[in-house]
Fold these 2 entries.
Entry 1:
Amino acid sequence: MCRRTKLKKGFTLVELLVVIAIIGILVGLLLPAVQAAREAARRMQCQNNLKQLALACLNYESAIKRFPMAFVPAVTPYPPNRNNNNVESWGWCALILPYVEQSNLYNNLGVNQYSLRAVIAGENPSLTSAQAQALLQTPIQTFMCPSDTGAGGDLIHRQRHFGGGVGTQKAGLGNWRPARANYISCRGTRDQPQSRLDTHGMMMENTAIRFADVTDGTSNTFLLGERDSLYGRGATWIGTRNPRGARARGIYYVTANVRPPLNSSDPPFGWNRSSNRAVQAGFSSLHTGGAHFAYVDGSVHFISENIDWRRDRAGGCRVWDITPCEPTYGVYQRLGRRNDGFVFETPQ
């Protein structure tokens, strides 16, 4: 009687290696598509964040009859004692907290009652200094780009703490880092807080910009933009550290100008990175190829980093000139100015 031998079914080593290779190829083909889809979703969320912030600024303007200041001088209004303003001061993000569903945080901090310096130092009787500093480290997702995981996590970059550095400081505050943000206001083409010669931006210190002041058109003027935290050192929603400082100026915590090229802080540009001034002063993002900007009309557009930009000293133009220098500014700089008489449509 013959016995039939059962053949054992299975994979040979060669077949297994072939299957693994095929799976690896499929993963290699699909992974970039998945990553691209995720980044597209993050970019859409970033756009929505800026949209919410722009609408909050518009609602603020409707209620207060002016756009938020870039920051509120903590001591004496400008002028005459401008040097006395070199202290911790609330920024525009803090002013619009009630308009982004953060009324409790706004009230707990006492934004409309105490200066930022007083709150940090524990001079708000409702909060100790430790409690205040903890609240000022509250991460607010609306202020953070989802594509930017943050060089310092939920806190601002370690090189930009609120202690030490240039400027006046309340004794005993120590070095600490507030919550980070990725959205900053546009102050035009200049960054000198001591000068009032260039007032073409939408948000500066101690200003009262209204819709009537935007003579170039609300759909042709930047209101807000992005700042990445990896190369651009980011920003914070609470306010400024030392707005009158000569070096690491605190105005860069809350505002930026269009004098440096877009994404000039990111590789491969690194424009003027040796002094770190352009890195701190301009707009930038970790999105590929550009950054989002909110306009005064509330719309949000993605602006290419290849947008027309020109150095402002060409043709004999001086850095402090009040009169616009037509041959020197590019489309990017013009979009950052609200009333210079040169109207440019947003590049598509």
Entry 2:
Amino acid sequence: MAANKVLEGVFAINKPFGMSSAQVIRDCQEYFNPSAVFAPLIEQERALRDKESRYQKHRRGKAKQAIRVKMGHGGTLDPLATGVLILGVGRGTKSLQNFLACTKTYETVVLFGASTDTYDRTGRIIKKGRYDEVTREAAEKALEGFRGKIRQMPPLYSALKMEGKPLYEYAREGKPIPREIETRDVEVAELDLVEWYEPGTHNHRWPTEEAEPAEKNLVDSVWRVAKQQAATAEELSKLTPEQREEEARALAEYNSKKREAEERVDSLVSDEQQQQEQQPPAKKRKKTKEGRAEPMMSGALGNLPPKGRGSDLVPPPPAPDTPPPWEGNGPPAAKIRMTVTSGFYVRSLCHDLGEKLGCGAMMAELSRTRQGQFVLGGDNCMEYDELLKGEDVWGSKVRRMLELWNNPDAKASETKNDQAAAAPTNTGEARRADQQSKDAQADKPVDEGKAVQEEKATRESEPAKNEKAAESATGPERTSVEQAKEEEEKAAAAAMAA
């Protein structure tokens, strides 16, 4: 790919723990904006800006006047989660919508024995349960009910409203939930328990903070209603169109608030870049003549940008020597791998599994290992830490990933070319081996008399072979004809002799 070619497309990055999806974008922009790799894209955008009318420039606003690499993501990941985060660059952002509906593969660690209001280890404990009899066999049997097409209740407690009032207000006021909560259709294509952690063999911990009694009562009522609900069309039809519309609005609001909590902003504006623009000139990064930040030294090990609002959003896992919040060895845990459709909540699966086992459970870890054709550790997914190693490292990686996106057949073509490149070598070796064999035969002394005799014997043996083959082909009928002919010849010879 030419060095001055505009690079656009889609690739993936391994999102670190504790960081929002938007913060990953801001960090990438921090490296991409001043780079030589994306200089043609920046220049292209600058040329387009120059052609804008005064009205268009005014509408853009001062906050968006700075030219930067346009980026977006194809589906957010919780700060608690790591793994595949699909990123679009330039016109590649228009393709990101396609990845919201594709299948995804996750690996999660379920910690048994307690449930939280957020369904994961970052929330507050709602209730605890006995886990003495929770075994791998029991968990695998319980998972059977979650495969295929199922109906799942989203983690509603955090933000959803009912009849215009957030659920947490019902908790504070001690009022019951006015009606049923509708579940959603999802599909689990694959679901496997891949690793089992016996009590005392892992470092996963429950949170130490517990929810208030009113909140516990509310969540208890939500779960009780969920258990009573049957996922049949007849019961779902009890909801009026207005109630269904409210459910849809509530879920949309939940997802919106969820993104705000994770990303803190719902835009692609780099907060850190804005902060730098507001700093005194002496504190700004050194600029080149082109107005871009001076790139890192070749091969130098750089530092990450200053941490933005989307960093360190969740506490790290407890240290191994942290005293556990239980007596004895504590509860077991399990690693589960699943491939699911869009709209599936992994934390809800963890919570529902604990409810089914009667002990409670929460999500302790989460990693997205695949989304669509993007696979963790694959050719189209880079490691976040590669940004630290400078443009000499991440530049070639990003170029390659965007090339694969724009030309999916490039890898297959390269494989064929590699095979073709290896073929002349193999052919040459075969020819050399054949020539060496001929040379070896030529070096041997030849007995001409013996060779002539062998050739004569071969010629004489051919008719016999042919006759034998013909005899085998015709069978007994051929033999009787020959006998009759032989008798006639003997009779003729006897007559001549007389």
